[in-house]
């Protein structure tokens, strides 16, 4: 078997695998966070759900930073003591309208309180830039595949 004949197939596989990795790397992931409090019994959770995935998400609970600069749509904070808590969410920037959301929740022992917040909107200029980059990437990957 000729080794040079096998190279294009391998190269094509590398290009396809690289493209898939690039697509998956940009996906938002659920975030699990831990409230910084001493170990206590019957702690609860606070679940934060955004209307869509957002970049640069920062969350504080009672002034304690529990998540910084995350790309997510959902965040669950455990080890939260029962009682009232203030949840502050800041997100956006880098082409998105900065958005802040603050609310009060009550956590039941061994329970889960929920917060739903609107994600920031992408600016028109960023939408155009992202679309142009995506089209350029697809043209580049297509050209590489055609050359192989």
Outline the structure in words.
This protein is of the alpha/beta class and 148 residues long. The protein has a domain at 27-121: Immunoglobulin-like (Sandwich), CATH 2.60.40. The protein is 32% helix and 46% strand. Strands 1, 2, 3, 4, 5 and 6 form a six-stranded mixed β-sheet that branches. A hairpin with a 2-residue loop joins strand 2 (44-61) and strand 3 (64-80). The chain is elongated, with a radius of gyration of 22 Å. The two termini are 19 Å apart. The mean pLDDT is 84.
Short overview:
The chain is α/β, with parallel strands linked by helices and 148 residues long.
The SS-based structural class is: alpha/beta
Regions with pLDDT < 50 over 5+ consecutive residues? none
CA radius of gyration is: 22 Å
For the record, the CATH architecture of one domain stands as: Sandwich
List descriptors.
6-stranded mixed beta sheet; 2 helices; alpha/beta; 6 strands; Immunoglobulin-like; 32% helix; 148 residues
Detail the topology: elements first, then pairings.
Blueprint: H1 3-25, E1 31-34, E2 44-61, E3 64-80, E4 83-93, E5 96-107, E6 112-117, H2 124-147
Parallel strand pairs: 1-3, 2-6
Antiparallel strand pairs: 2-3, 2-4, 4-5
């Amino acid at each position: 078997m000729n080794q040079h004949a096998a190279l294009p197939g391998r190269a094509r596989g590398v290009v396809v695998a690289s493209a898939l990795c690039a697509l998956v790397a940009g996906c938002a992931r659920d975030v699990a966070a831990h409230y910084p409090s001493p170990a206590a019994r019957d702690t609860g959770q606070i679940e934060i759900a955004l209307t869509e995935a957002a970049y640069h998400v920062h969350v504080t609970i009672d002034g304690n930073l529990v998540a910084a600069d995350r790309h997510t749509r959902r965040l669950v904070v455990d080890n939260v003591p029962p009682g009232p808590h203030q949840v502050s969410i800041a997100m956006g920037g880098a082409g998105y309208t900065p958005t802040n959301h603050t609310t009060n929740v009550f956590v039941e022992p061994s329970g889960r309180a929920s917060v739903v917040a609107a994600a920031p909107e992408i600016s028109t200029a960023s939408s155009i830039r992202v679309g142009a980059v995506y089209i350029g990437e697809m043209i580049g990957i297509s050209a590489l595949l055609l050359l192989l």
